[in-house]
Design goal:
The chain has 182 residues and is mainly α. 22% of the residues are buried. It has 7 helices and 2 strands. α1 packs across α7, α2 packs across α4 and α4 runs parallel beside α6. The chain has one domain.
Amino acid sequence: MQPPGALPPGYAQPPAPTGGGPAFGELAIKRGVGRVIGFSILSFGIYGYYWFYVTRKQINGEVASTDDAGLYTAGLLVPILNVVITYWLWRDISLLRQRVGLPDFNVVLWIVLATFVPFAALIIYPMVVNRLNEYWDVRTGGAAVTAPVATGEKIVLGVGLAIWSLFALIIVIAIVAAVASS
């Protein structure tokens, strides 16, 4: 039995951090649970797709996969396929956790809960983000850093806030029209 946090045989030690940028490049970047929740709300839910795309690319790098993160992200728009694609990401995160000595999580149970239990996803998704951040901490020996807000995140937030503004404008117009007609 290997000590907690030790990398199993055959798993490459991460390279030493270099000065200036985030530790170990993009693969060591974490996103806080509060950030993911807040940006998801502010962006009218669009941020979830951004997070999925960036996370899928990072996980692909860790599992040496050539899967197309863009196609997977687009597949989230297709009912039923979105559940399968989400399962694949969560499964890979769970497997990576096992590689570094962290406990896995019950991916099938979490998918079922997030899919069929009302509002369970509001709890399950932040738990997945937390599990992924734990992985980065162990994978990098505690050197994982919080990602700065990227340009893509700012664009997603801008689009979401524009949608929220349009939504508010429509409500105001409907209220004014209702008051004017009475």
